[in-house]
Each structure stands twice: as C-alpha cells, then as structure tokens.
C-alpha cells in the first residue's frame, strides 16, 4: 500500500472510527437503562396483574384462560374513552425517566 493511501486510511479510521464507537457505546448504555426500566416496571406491575387475574378467576362466570388473556397486558399503554392514550403504568420511575431522556439525547445527537 502506498504511504499516501495508508495515511488516508489511518486518517479515516481516526476520524470516523472514534465517534462511531462512542455512539455504539452510548446506544448500549441506553439499551441497558431501558432494560432496567422494564425490569423495575414489571416488578411493580406483576403483583397488581396477579391480583386482577385472581379477582377475575374468582367470578364463577369467567373462564380461567379468559382471565389470563384479558389481564396479560395489564399496566401497558391503552386507549382511553375519548381515544386519548393513557400512558403505561410506572413510566414515571426515576430509571424510566432517565432512560427516556437518554434515548432522546441519543436521537438528538447530530452525528
């Protein structure tokens, strides 16, 4: 490889290799933060979901499989009576707010 081409290749790696690896690191940090958010949300929602399923099953008119299906997405976002979205439960946990802000900052990054 001629020295000029080698110099150009090294310059490209230094110029573009650094920011891309930093961006990848930031992306993995955001993904980890989002995973922590989902884990903490699920830990808070699970007992509430199980309680609703148990109440549903207690009614002799309901089928147990129906109760499981009906309440499986308890705590998720849903459409309200006027078509307005009702946000997910426990979306305001500190780790979830941090994950949201980190994802927004990553999306707003001009690179």
Tell me what the structure shows.
The protein is mainly alpha-helical and 111 residues long. It has one domain (30-108). Helices cover 71% and strands 4% of the residues. It has helices at 3-58, 64-71, 94-108, and strands spanning 78-79, 85-86. Strands 1-2 form a two-stranded antiparallel ribbon. Mean pLDDT is 84; it is low at 6-15 and 17-21.
Topology (SSEs and partners):
Blueprint: H1 3-58, H2 64-71, E1 78-79, E2 85-86, H3 94-108
Helix pairs in contact: 1-2, 1-3
Number of helices: 3
Distance between the termini: 31 Å
- Give the overall form: elongated
**Largest sheet report:** 2 strands, antiparallel
Cα-atom radius of gyration? 23 Å
Lateral strand order in the biggest sheet: 1-2
Stretches where pLDDT is under 50 for at least 5 consecutive residues are 6-15, 17-21
The total tally of domains equals 1
Helix content: over 70%
Total strands: 2
- Beta content comes to under 5%
Average pLDDT confidence is 84
Q: Please provide the ordered H/E string of secondary-structure elements.
A: HHEEH
Structural class: mainly alpha
